[in-house]
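Re: the 196-residue chain
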Amino acid sequence: MISAGRNIVIALPPEAKPLIRTFKLERLQPVTRPPVYTGRDLALVVSGAGEKAVHQSVNLLHNLNRHPNPYWYNLGIAGHADLPLGALLTINQVTDQKTKKTWVLPIQPVATIPGCNLMTVETAVDDYPGSAAYDMEAAGFCSAVIQFTGLEQIRIIKIISDNQTNSHRRISGKMVSALIQAKIDTIEQLLSGPVK
């Protein structure tokens, strides 16, 4: 068992590698599937893509982490119509495109980081209607986490990996890791918020 004030759910290994390296996280023993890494008051799970995988990974972290009231973070890439690649966003609202269910996150605004609404879709999209960012995991993350805590304990951080002029088909693992590594100092600040 572990006791960490911050649970982090990340879908893909290239998204997780910069955090594992920067924060010197170690693989939990005995080895779990999906993999869990710990250190510096963090527990990070690499869930795999899609809402179902994220839901299962949230349950895994909940069962492993003995902290009484951890913050929950979902960090990863997203698409947006016109924001530049590498733009970092904090998410104010998540909507599941399929079910139309919405979660409004009562987070404190961060002056240097734009807030944005996020639409969770089942498959990657080629267009990005409206002003929302698009991902494939956040709705599953929210629906799983609210079984255990309130929305005020949830933070979602996304980095733009594709837009109208840079297709999601061009995304590579190396590119994703580089985008996240470039924002690692800001991510560290966002992860160091108050934990009760």
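The radius of gyration is 15 Å.
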